[in-house]
User: Fold DUF917 domain-containing protein from Labedella phragmitis.
Amino acid sequence: MSWILTADAIDGLARGAAVLGTGGGGDPYIGALLARRAVDTHGPVTVIGLDELPDDALVLTVAMMGAPTVMVEKLPSLDEVVAPVRALGASLGRAVTHVACAEIGGVNSTIPVAAAAALGLPLLDADGMGRAFPELQMVLPTLYDVTASPLAFGDEKGNVGVLNTVDNHWTERIARVACVEMGCSIMISGFPMDGNIARVALVDGSLSHCVAIGAGLVEARAEKTDPVARVVEIIRGREFFAGKVVDVERATTTGFARGRATIDGTDGSLTLSFQNEHLMAESDGEVLVTTPDLIIVLDHESGEPITTEGLRYGQRVRVVAAPSDPRWHAPEALAMVGPGYFGYETASRRFDGTREPVL
Amino acid sequence: MSWILTADAIDGLARGAAVLGTGGGGDPYIGALLARRAVDTHGPVTVIGLDELPDDALVLTVAMMGAPTVMVEKLPSLDEVVAPVRALGASLGRAVTHVACAEIGGVNSTIPVAAAAALGLPLLDADGMGRAFPELQMVLPTLYDVTASPLAFGDEKGNVGVLNTVDNHWTERIARVACVEMGCSIMISGFPMDGNIARVALVDGSLSHCVAIGAGLVEARAEKTDPVARVVEIIRGREFFAGKVVDVERATTTGFARGRATIDGTDGSLTLSFQNEHLMAESDGEVLVTTPDLIIVLDHESGEPITTEGLRYGQRVRVVAAPSDPRWHAPEALAMVGPGYFGYETASRRFDGTREPVL
Assistant:
């Protein structure tokens, strides 16, 4: 089923994407600003379901790569957003037919809207993760042997590069050092896929899901009901901690925003470890939830999602867990995005939606 | 005038290039090995003079980029040498007609021979510097508004990238970080030029000059005359110091081999500062010769050129200065390759071939 994404719907999409982005993907309002400007200039974007994608489509993902701490200060121009897509299409020698989101997260669910508008192409109601992850090879298409490369990248100065690498780790390594050198924030386009692959490899319906989450949040506030409870219901998650942010350690190193946050609640304290995204939640030495499941920090009252770079001392927050796309729990997927990959010495603690709250 | 470069001539070319390479450009024998293998497999290379280059030729330079300290341990394959040329040709959408040397230096005067042989293309009797310099934008074509970009790069694993940058400094910056990440040594192809530009922008006759230097060195030894004196005569230089290497400080940082060497002679000591190439010679606080003029270290007896990474405690050496291509002394050229650019706080000390030896 296809639908039209107008400028009015972009804030809701951004808000929902920031919820599923588990703290990563950059400031949703930065991406929403750009997407609204693109839609105002070039007209609304047609969003199409995976079931409507033709076999011979050429799908490219569009994303911003870098440290969200830098992204918030470097709003890309539309020229910058479309340059890597054009460079990659030229390198492939084929017309790009559809744009897709690599991940669901603040910036990276709205930047592709801007790209689709500026390029006059339809956007898929889908993404590569169903959440956000910090490294570019961490998408479900990797499990279907889709490679990130050829991948194009570009910066606000007009520098553009196209990489053809032997595997996704090399794409990540080379693009990451280029990203750091180019100012810690670049636009990328990659993961070229034919329609028949994209239909199975992507997470279906992500954009509609984001719009529903964003709408639910706003409606609950309008109805004076608890917006956090509404979000939890829509994402089939569970609130497992509430408290006040009492400490945030954060460093922007090797192109990532890494750190940890401590939240004090009535019955103890919770530590969140993040690398762009929240990756592990612990309390009193017990690991409660880990990547790949979703750890989401929401404002206590408004239910607004808080990104890892937006965490501040004194914020009153509620922490929600939700299950990831089940494919992320396959052994080969856990090797790519499980806690061990990020250097946390724990097994993956799978979120169980049927269980009582952990605390 | 065109001539045929056979396998037998490659050692002489490499030796002469190592002389003019002022200590940089990597170990000449590594490049010579590869060039001989390519000529054995694919046949000899036709070397053509700039006067024979047609206006509509498409010339690309081929070079190895990285720290010579690493290059000596990573002999590239022929596949690795030709991959960036093919990638750049494909990106330009035009057939490459001629290969050129970006610089004169051990590896980088023989690697293009290997590329020309493997690609079945003629090689120009010319190069972009008339010596070696450590950064890729440091070529005379830069003074003629030829840009390094589009530039292709590749490694031994099979990773390839093509950069389109806004200026040569950005090509250098992005390629350099990619180079470091890819193992401190990569193959590059860039500076695409039409024939009419290449004819004026390159240094004419460099390869013939190298072959003559290499032949002179070997002949002098056979005739039991002084090979250093023969080299000095051929390059119109002057020997200005002789002594024993008593100290070498060397570090491979940010993709370069940086350091300094101290040579004790009968009347004092000489300090050579290098960054891949020798860039400044000082004695007792007096600057004697600086970049862009050539500072060349030769073995005391054999006259064999010694690269910066080949400098060892106890070597008995003779140090020769020679004038660079005069275009390097233009103010805009000195801004690019003068001592100030490399962080040495001295004005360029121009070598004067008519002067008495400085010491």
About this structure: Chain A has ten helices and 16 strands. The domain at 3-204 of chain A is CATH 3.40.1610.10 (CV3147-like fold). Confidence is low (pLDDT under 50) at residues 354-359 of chain A. The first strand of chain A starts at residue 3 and ends at 5.
